[in-house]
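Convert to structure. Protein one:
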Amino acid sequence: MYPPDDPTWVSYTISANEYDTAARAITAPGRRLSSIMRELGHSHIDILKMDIEGAEYSVISNLIESGIEVSQLLVEFHHRFKDIGIEKTQNAIKLLNKYGYKIFDISSRGEELSFLRTTRSFFRLWGTC
């Protein structure tokens, strides 16, 4: 992970080109959400908020691949980063739409999107079907 140029900021990123700090990169352990859920005995997530500085794209892919039930997904997309771009965000939104996630809110900056899962499994989760 790469630290911000300004030492008073707190947000590290996986985006090597965002900050000019490659020499100060750190390695930190990470775990998949599915592993944490299994360890804690959880079968679904009601609300998942992601502001993870460019890592949201791989987490979204893993979320879909793992079949994790998330009722609401709140994501800050980082397509403004030099090595990411808007196409990655568009592809992530298409993937989420394909698996039943529909946008219900977009921030005025256009980077924070809120999704509601509208598939049948969502309604079974709440017992309305």
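Protein two, convert as well:
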Amino acid sequence: MREESGLGSIVLALHYAEIAARIRQPLLAGALASGIPVPDEIQFPAAVWEFRSPPLDGIRFVGGYFPGSDGIAPFNVENGKIVFVPENPFRLDVARGTFFGIEEGIFKSLCAMARFGDQLAAQVTLFPDIPFFFSGLSVLRDGSIIGPLEFFRPIGMNVY
């Protein structure tokens, strides 16, 4: 229970509860915020995405995207592959979308915390420092990432 947790564990759980809420994981967010463990029957289905460029090439994130200002999905699935297709390729004022997510390994650790309590906070690892490579992308040590959708490709759904 939360009474047995240290202040650092509680702060970490509350921080990640906010991230979980942003990626549409209300059950995970609630468990992390309250410190009340969820039973094993509760699963956390999530969309998994892969980063498509060095230095994060191949690293997987759990999250989703905010559409561009036109609100249209910026990609299609053709022959099993994701193809980015802008609605109007001549317009430069409409962004394709913005991805927001959290590194998959850290997400798994958060799911474990939600099931077994704040005492697992010490097992949540920091994401390594990434050298600067593009000003439009933000990668934080907590594993959260936000940036242009073109850097990511959806892999599919996974249950944690």
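DSSP finds three helices and eight strands in the chain. Residues 6 and 119 are 8 Å apart (CA to CA).
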